[in-house]
Amino acid sequence: MPIEILPTDSVIGAEVRGLTLAEVPRGDTLELLEDALEKHGVLVFPDQSRVTPAQQVAFSRPFGPVKLVGGEHEKIAGNPEIFVVGNTGKEPVIFAPTIAGGELEWHTDHIHLPDPARASLLLAREVPKSGGDTLFACMYSAYDALDADTRMLCDRLEVLNSVSGLNVYLEGQGYSEQAKPAPQADPPTVWPLVRAHPRSGRKALYFGNQVSIGIVGWPEDKARAFIADLTEQACRPALRYRHHWKAGDAVLWDNRRVLHAGTPYDLANERREMHRTTIRETAPIKLVPPA
Ligand SMILES: [Fe+2]
What does CATH list as the number for 4-280? Predict the structure, then answer.
């Protein structure tokens, strides 16, 4: 069966048909997926319930190193590369507001680490009847839509990223201590606010509205206000794809050109269990030199 890539009606996102995560992508298939990932930002693979955790890891490896970080505690026995997101484990892992309409946590995975995630693959094992969607926002479009002066300003800025910003957010949402990632021992990472995608050269905004805690050379208040304003523009509904999960959906996204955010669900009465593999960058992210 030939592989089909069917774009969504949104500015990003496509469904991939004719392919199972049980097969390790190589050669032309890997190239096709890399192209589609860069082009569409978010790839949805329906009906992957029968894929095992080991197969998910094997599928992920050709895209880059697959590795968790120390603070990520929920793992599947025998598959230490799988991170469990949701409320089914001993300790909940929920990076979403607690109420509908609450402030979202827009982010790109592991921007606070020296080797951030270049891509992430989430496979839905159990999903709530409603809520628990994932929103994705196109950071190519967000950058392109800025006015010329703001683009030039953003091109020069470097952002400080730390899990401390996320923990302040989770505290504000009323989550328990156990739900928070371990405090970051290392200083914040410093990455450019604008990065060029290595595959296309296109520029994308690269930040998170909670985890980006400052801008190099700026007072903290001014930086936080700028990031809040940028989030509002960059993640506005017109630039989003919303994924409503079905059990067995797998979604691979490109952290180099999309931000994502979880939406709330009924934590007391519903179960949500998602298995994530995290594919890491292998080179530092650099400022884009002026043209
Ligand atoms: Fe995430």
Answer: 3.60.130.10
